[in-house]
Design goal:
Layout (H helix, E strand, L loop, with lengths): L1 E5 L9 E5 L4 H10 L4 E4 L3 H7 L6 E7 L2 E2 L14 H4 L3 E5 L3 H9 L4 E5 L4 H11 L3 E6 L8 H17 L3 E2 L1 H12 L3 H7 L1 H8 L3 H7 L9 E4 L9 E5 L1
Parallel strand pairs: 1-8, 1-9, 2-7, 2-8, 3-6, 4-6
Antiparallel strand pairs: 3-11, 4-5, 10-11
């Protein structure tokens, strides 16, 4: 069985893909579903998200550009700020700078696409192991085309969990992620010390960085649903 880690999204993928944007889209996605959202719709652009407003009842728009909420959206991209009463039974339409785009790339070829973060790392690894027949790719979203320490570190955590469950042939990306995981300290240090973690802290979003550093605090794994009635050009995720 093959296990690969892409430090940035590219190329075609095997049957199972784990998409990571630890700071913060995939962490926020996990939190939304954990706290009562019915489903997530990931769009390719903010304009596509805004176009969905009014087409269905109970939609909430959530997203960011440059770390800050998108004008006209109901929510930003804050896992620490996810509010259970607001989310209960609602469908959340998400668009973010990096994470939702990475999910769209993965969905072009991966049969099973899962959203992973440190907060659901163990559950996501177990789910991927249960689904795999060909191989697993862990895809790091990065930050505006640059590799992000927080995503590579999280990929190393996932790779460790997967190796504990069985044997895999590792590519160089997986070896790099494991090396980073073992050398970058604990999750709090790795995420807070990353370029993007430092940037978010300057915006007053340090609580999100701390929240995203929680290791396996959730068992929710956002899972792509193929087909169904999702609007064209969106990815439909539910709790798996």
């Amino acid at each position: 069985m093959k296990l690969r880690v892409d430090l940035l999204p590219h190329g075609s993928y095997p049957d199972v893909v784990l998409v990571i944007d630890a700071l913060r889209a995939t962490t926020t996605a996990v939190t939304y579903l954990e706290r009562g959202a019915q489903a997530l719709l990931l769009t390719s652009t903010p304009e596509a998200a805004l176009a969905l407003r009014g087409t269905r009842d109970h939609l909430l728009l959530a997203g960011e550009r440059g770390g800050l909420p998108i004008p006209g959206f109901d929510l930003g991209n804050s896992p620490a700020g996810a509010n259970t009463p607001v989310l209960g039974g609602r469908t959340v339409v998400m668009n973010t700078t990096n994470g939702t785009g990475a999910a769209h790339i993965a969905a072009q070829s991966g049969k099973h696409v899962l959203l992973a973060a440190l907060t659901n790392a163990h559950a996501a690894a177990r789910r991927a192991r249960a689904l795999v027949t060909e191989g697993i790719a862990i895809v790091c979203a990065g930050t505006e085309g640059r590799v992000g320490l927080e995503d590579v570190y999280t990929a190393g955590v996932l790779a460790e969990y997967l190796l504990a469950m069985g044997e895999f042939t590792l590519d160089d990306g997986a070896r790099i992620a494991l090396t980073v995981r073992r050398g970058a300290g604990d999750p709090g240090e790795a995420l807070a010390g990353s370029d993007h973690g430092l940037y978010l802290t300057t915006l007053g979003l340090g609580e999100d960085v701390r929240f995203a550093s929680g290791l396996s605090t959730s068992t929710v794994v956002p899972t792509l649903v193929r087909g169904g009635d999702a609007p064209e050009g969106t990815l439909h995720f539910v709790a798996g």
